[in-house]
Amino acid sequence: MVIDGPMFIDGEWVKAEQTFEVINPATGVVIGSVADGNQTHATQAVEAAHKAFASWSRTTAHSRSAILYRAWQLMLDNKSELAALMTREQGKPLKAAANEVQYAADFLLWFAEEAKRTYGETIPSARPDQRFIVQHQPVGVVAAITPWNYPISMLTRKLAPALAAGCTVVVKPAESTPLCAIEVFKLLQEAGVPAGVINLITASDPAPIGKVFCEHPAVRKLTFTGSTAVGKKLSQDAAVGLKRVSMELGGHAPFIVYKDADPVHAAKGASLVKFLNTGQACICPNRIFVHKNILTEFVETLTSRIKKMRVGNGAEEGVAIGPLVDEKAIVKIENQVNDAQDKGADILCGGERLTGDTFADGFFFSPTVLTGVDDSMLIYREETFGPVAPVIPFDDNDDIIAMANDTHYGLAAYVYTKDLSTALRSVEQLNFGIIGVNDINPTSAAAPFGGMNESGLGREGAREGLLEYMETKLAGFSI
Ligand code: ADP
Question: Once rounded to an integer, what is the mean pLDDT over residues 266-293?
């Protein structure tokens, strides 16, 4: 069955003259036909959000919180349906999709709670007749552009704090995963979000919609998750109207296994976080640095675990690794693997596209371990966004922190060590926004997520995630 996908503007489900198709990346089958929105739709949505801001921003934090609680409950009630749709549309295995829906719901709950805690402060003045009061107010209309790799949680990570703050929002989801976004909007509507407060524009060509978001004077904040190249372009365009931006961009995570670490434990961690979402997460390790004393044991464990991972359609029982998003992703990975091999890396498993039988119409690449990777190779610099684990040996003479920091990205980093000083020194010296110490999942709705350098600006989730959507206003009184 092909799902018919409308947009949501000013409280109405709206069709467009044109539509575009959404396919299942595991099978190539068309699963949806979605409204292809244009600049007129985007402008209508921004104007509806602008109009709705006047009343929504004046509702109490408690009433906004109550709506977010209802949305949280509805998302949990619909977890298995949402997960099944996500698997069909995005490809990740059902269990991973259900975990993502849970993570998405966590943001609704967290910001339902935080909505009520946007405390201001009073500040003593040097003048006896003066009083300072600081309060936080919503920034205004927010434009949000979201990616396909986490199609539900990346929506709630932006929508929940924006709504909690009292902002109104226009969302443009990725063109390969609009169906998940439509379902989230249905839940939010059912939870009681008033007309105009949230708006959804789906489009096959994102650039003209992004242009409206960057140029329309009513938009006061742009929040984006996606590639560094697009993030930079949008930041430049948004700067013309001096709009606030939050940018959650690419990564090139180092995964450092020091010589005192347990190589088996570290390899288990690496196999899980590297192949998360078929390697399509911005926090996936892209350079696995392993001390040469424990290299053999680490690589053996990693390879044997990876060989056991079943690749296939995420809807099938027992599949651990689903398809990639599209053909372009496969070509990029093939290019990196071939380049590494030409320059001397060894392929211990995988290394090629999977074809034939059940793989014939999807985008599958076999989980790959490369050893002997060095800084002359593309994979040492370029984000892979696929199921390839490049292992780079190091020894006591190498400055491993400098090697790990040798990238323009700065999102996640991982450190395995039993030594407290090594761990603390690494945390302090690594130029990354998120650091896992003997831990592969340092993410949570309660914890600030975001990158340094060209991995982005701002933080999502946590207390910080709410302040991204609020102005700080100072009132000075003379009494
Ligand atoms: P990826 O390479 O991971 O697909 P992109 O940065 O291309 O990342 O996509 C992330 C989001 O940015 C998607 O919603 C996509 O539609 C959107 N996008 C891509 N190019 C533009 C653009 N020029 N203007 C606005 N949005 C864009």
Answer: 97
**What's the first-to-final CA gap in the chain, in angstroms?**
69
Pairing mode, strands 3-5 and 30-35: parallel
Residues 200 and 346 in one domain: no
Residue 408 neighbours by CB distance under 10 Å:
11
Asked if residue 72 and residue 41 are part of one domain, the reply reads: yes
Spacing, Cα 143 to ligand 1 middle (Å):
14
Using the predicted structure, report yes or no on whether residue 468 has a pLDDT greater than 90.
yes
CA quadruple 236, 241, 242, 244: dihedral sign = negative
The whole domain housing 233 covers 3-249+453-478
Q: Which CATH number covers residue 406?
A: 3.40.309.10
- Name residue, tokens 């989730």: 461
238 lies in the same domain as 275: no
Q: What is the mean pLDDT of residues 386-411?
A: 97
Mean model confidence pLDDT for the chain: 97
> In angstroms, what is the span from residue 205 Cα to ligand 1's centroid?
9
What pLDDT, on a 0 to 100 scale, did the predictor assign at position 1?
Answer: 80
Total number of domains constituting the chain: 2
Mean pLDDT of 399-427: 98
How far apart are alpha carbons 475 and 441 in whole angstroms? 41
- pTM given for the model: 0.97
Are residue 381 and residue 463 in the same domain, yes or no? no
Check if 146 has its Cβ closer than 6 Å to any atom of ligand 1.
yes
For a pocket test of ligand 1, which of 176, 228, 230 has the largest count of ligand atoms closer than 8 A to its C-beta? 230
Residues 72 and 58 in one domain: yes
Q: State which ligand 1 atom lies nearest to the alpha carbon of 233.
A: 23
Q: For the segment 89-144, what is each residue's pLDDT rounded down to a tens digit? A: 999 999 999 999 999 999 999 999 999 999 999 999 999 999 999 999 999 999 99
Position 444 in a domain: no
